[in-house]
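Q: what sequence does this backbone want?
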């Protein structure tokens, strides 16, 4: 959709063939959504230790974050996806490092939200492959 907007294609114009091809590929994968399940509860047992792991990343089209809860109990480890957030990149072109920082900020806000709800994590870890983000956080 963003590509069509950037290409200044009118709402009543036919989409170029490459857009139709991309849409058809996306449409073919939609049946996989029916296989996604969301559990009603995260864990049934009382665990010894909880840690929160926040992952962030960005591309030219979007930036995103996801949060996992890692739990230890009697030598066993379980990991569950807790929450995700994603945003489309602004229409005005941005650099990948800037989008990586936006993803990190989104991850920070999501971590605060998860902490306020769960209140169980002993430690929180932020994971990123962005050199810009990692260098800025090391300075502080």
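A:
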């Amino acid at each position: 959709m963003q590509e069509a907007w950037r290409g200044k294609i009118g709402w009543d114009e036919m989409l170029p063939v490459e857009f139709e091809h991309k849409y058809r590929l996306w449409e073919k994968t939609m049946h996989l959504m029916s296989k996604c399940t969301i559990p009603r509860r995260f864990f049934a047992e009382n665990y010894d230790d909880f840690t929160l792991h926040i992952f962030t990343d960005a591309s030219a089209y979007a930036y995103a974050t996801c949060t996992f809860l890692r739990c230890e109990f009697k030598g066993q480890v379980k990991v569950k996806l807790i929450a995700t957030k994603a945003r489309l990149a602004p229409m005005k072109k941005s650099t990948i490092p800037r989008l990586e920082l936006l993803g990190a900020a989104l991850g920070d806000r999501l971590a605060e939200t998860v902490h306020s709800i769960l209140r169980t994590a002993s430690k929180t870890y932020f994971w990123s492959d962005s050199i810009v983000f990692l260098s800025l956080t090391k300075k502080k």
